[in-house]
Structures are given as C-alpha cells and as structure tokens.
Amino acid sequence: MSVPRDHPRYHSLMQREKLARGYEQGITVIEGLIAHGRGEAFDYLIGEATAEPAKRAIRAAAATLLLASMPVISVNGNTAALCPAQLVHLARVANAKLEVNLFYRSRERARRIAAVLKQAGAEEVLGVEPEAEIPNLSSERRLVAKRGIYSADVVLLAIEDGDRTEALVEMGKRVIAIDLNPLSRTAQRASITIVDEVTRALPLLTQEVEKLRGLSKAQLEELASFDNRANLKAMLRHITQRLSELEP
Ligand code: PTJ
C-alpha cells in the first residue's frame, strides 16, 4: 500500500484504496467509485464523525433488528470492498442473513462478493442465484432470494439508489438505510436512516444490538418507534450549524 500511516487523511485514503482494489478485483463497479466520492463530500459536511441524530437512528435500528423475525443485510459492491468483516459480524450478532444484491448485476460479480463475505467468516450468503423478484422494480436489484430479502421483515442496506428502497417499503418491509446523503431518495424513503459513513456506523450498530439484547419486547418497541423525517431534519440542522460555525 502506498498510503503512509502518518498521513493526516490516512483513513480516507485507505477507504479509496480498498475501493480501487475492489474495482481491480471485479467486486466494485466503477460507478461505485463515483458514489463514494459523493459520500465523501457529505462526510465533510457532517464532520467525519457520527452525529447525534445518527446515534439515535442507530439505537432505533438496533431495536428494530432485535425485534425482527427475519432480518437480512443487503450487500453491494461498495460495502463488500469496504467492510466485509463488519457486515459478517453484524449478521452474526443480529442473527441476520447476508444477501448479495447488485444494481450492476452479473453472476460472476455476485459470486465474487459472496466469496469475499465467506472469506470474512460468513457461513451462508444468499443472492448469487436469485429465484424471486421485487414487484414494481425494473432494475437488476429486483432479483432477490426467496428465503432472503423477498421474505424478510427488516432489510438493512447501505450506499444504495432510491428505487429499491421505495419498492421494499411498498412490500411492507422495514428498511434501515446507511447513507451519508440525508437528501437522497433512499434516506427519505427508508424507515430508519442512519446518516453516517458505513464503516463508522456498522460497528456502532453491532455494539448497540449487543447492548440492547436484554431488553423486553415492550422496551425494544419503544426504542424502535422512530420519526425518520424529524431525524433527517435534525441531521440537516447539524450540517447547517457546522457550516455556519465554519464560515470565515
Ligand atoms: O455494487 P452495485 O452494482 O450494486 O452498485 C452500487 C452503486 C454504489 C454504484 C449504486 O448503489 C449507486 O449508484 O448508488 P448511488 O445512487 O450513487 O447512491 C449512493 C449513496 O450512498 C449516496 O447518497 C452517497 O452519498 C452514499 N454513500 C457513498 N459512500 C458512502 C455512502 N454512505 C455511507 N457510507 C459511505 N462510505
């Protein structure tokens, strides 16, 4: 790796390296690199740290995962390159299934992503040979596993375009989204949006699931009830506040 450890933006540059390597290995698509750049810009505005509204969303998401009867974590080319071990760890702790779901789908890429997750410790990865379709969705993301996303009551996704989020919500599922852009369609349509960088949010979410595990159903239901719109507004206020403080 060519990034010196003492570089002030080491972490950010390493993320880029992981995605560039993911691209070379046929895991991430080139469009995914552009999507990451948009995420980086929003992360600057947020302050490259988990903001209070994101922490509240993480708590609601953890409670929702614990209440779920069939939670599924959806994995794409960006998340597979950035954080396969974190995805596998969360799946284990939350008793969730892992499913590959791609916008730019090819069987070969789905297979490679499943192999990356297995290398990171996953026992089973769904979605390589999808047998079901999400209704009212024309993109390749409609192709899902019957005993995975198709039947899930809760779906966690990250770095995703808005169409599938909408279609999943229309199917009656609760969607937990991790997206740095509070204005994106995914952020606006999801049931719970964690506006945070995916590799920061996943370990916090995993810790929170572990922390809340002992709570009663009623306590979890209270934490899981969440006003996503109000929380997104709080996130926008956080950004506005930061910008006004940074004003020269
Ligand atoms: O691997 P595939 O074929 O499924 O393709 C995946 C991409 C990323 C190309 C596809 O989902 C896409 O085009 O996504 P969008 O529509 O560009 O949306 C990505 C969203 O994720 C944007 O709102 C970004 O701000 C946000 N984002 C980017 N990087 C991160 C992020 N959010 C959290 N953490 C990040 N690291």
What can you tell me about this protein's structure?
By secondary structure, this protein is an alpha/beta fold. The protein has one domain: Rossmann fold, CATH 3.40.50.12640. It is built from 11 helices and 7 strands. The chain has a 5-stranded parallel sheet with strand order 2-1-5-6-7, with helices on both faces. Strands 3-4 form a two-stranded antiparallel ribbon. Strand 6, helix 8 and strand 7 form a beta-alpha-beta unit. Helix 1 packs antiparallel against helix 2, helix 3 packs across helix 9 and helix 5 packs parallel to helix 9. The longest helix is centred in the last third of the chain and has 19 residues. The chain starts with 9 loop residues before the first helix and ends with a helix. The site of ligand PTJ has 25 residues, from helix 2 and helix 4.
Q: How many domains is the backbone divided into?
A: 1
Question: What is the CATH architecture descriptor?
Answer: 3-Layer(aba) Sandwich
Sum up the overall morphology in one term: globular
CATH superfamily: Phosphopantoate/pantothenate synthetase
Please provide the ordered H/E string of secondary-structure elements: HHHEHHEHEEEHEHEHHH
Number of H/I helices: 11
Helix-strand category:
alpha/beta
Short description:
With 248 residues, the protein is an alpha/beta fold. The protein contains 11 helices and 7 strands.
